[in-house]
């Protein structure tokens, strides 16, 4: 699904990622761990195309369609959840109310609520972010601390969602310190001093 060869990234003359070589196969469920500032989020941003690597190459599998939750998700703050999901969905494909409602119901969000996103709690925003990362049948899903702000019930629903996506053959990369202990990962990768360790 995706292959990184000799990928590196520096910020302000500080090396964050150093000669990263990593292949993740189609359908794999991978967790990336590491201390704060080790480069996990930077790696996801590079994979997602949000950040350009200073060196190395990235190869994507044919038909790769990326969905992502990276750092603090951005929304059109004065608009509703439905407006935001519809806006994002229509950027690449025709909006499906039924699909979005299915995921909103899973996380106990009212898709027809008239409340603006700016009034959502951290947990509600996080659930909305997860929904937009999977609602278009994306096959490479990148999740950075996805359980942040979620309550116990929502964490359980997130676990179930990941299991379902795995059954569907999706490739999933999760960077998380905690909250994912009940997920059966195929691999756990650690980033230490800018390098990959398995």
Automatic annotation (TrEMBL):
The lineage of its organism: Bacteria, Bacillati, Bacillota, Erysipelotrichia, Erysipelotrichales. InterPro entries: AAA+_ATPase, ABC_transporter-like_ATP-bd, ABC_transporter-like_CS, ABC_Transporter_VariousFunc, P-loop_NTPase. Residues 2-198 form the ABC transporter domain. Gene3D superfamilies: P-loop containing nucleotide triphosphate hydrolases. This is ATP-binding cassette domain-containing protein. PANTHER family: ABC TRANSPORTER ATP-BINDING PROTEIN ALBC-RELATED. Keywords: ATP-binding, Nucleotide-binding, Transport. GO terms for molecular function: ATP binding.
């Amino acid at each position: 699904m995706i292959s990184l060869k000799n990928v590196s990234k520096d910020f302000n003359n500080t090396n964050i990622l150093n000669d990263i070589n990593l292949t993740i196969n189609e359908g794999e469920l991978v967790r990336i761990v590491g201390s704060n500032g080790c480069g996990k989020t930077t790696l996801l941003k590079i994979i997602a195309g949000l950040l350009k690597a200073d060196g190395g190459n990235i190869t994507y599998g044919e038909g790769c369609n990326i969905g992502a939750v990276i750092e603090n998700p951005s929304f059109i703050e004065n608009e509703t959840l439905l407006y935001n999901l519809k806006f994002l969905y229509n950027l690449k494909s025709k909006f499906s109310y039924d699909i979005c409602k299915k995921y909103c119901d899973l996380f106990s969000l009212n898709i027809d609520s008239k409340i603006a996103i700016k009034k959502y709690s951290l947990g509600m925003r996080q659930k909305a972010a997860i929904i937009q990362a999977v609602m278009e049948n994306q096959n490479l899903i990148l999740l950075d601390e996805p359980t942040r702000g979620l309550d116990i019930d929502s964490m359980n629903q997130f676990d179930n969602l990941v299991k379902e996506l795995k059954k569907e053959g999706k490739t999933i990369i999760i960077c998380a310190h905690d909250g994912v202990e009940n997920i059966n990962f195929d691999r756990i990768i650690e980033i230490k001093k800018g390098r990959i360790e398995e």
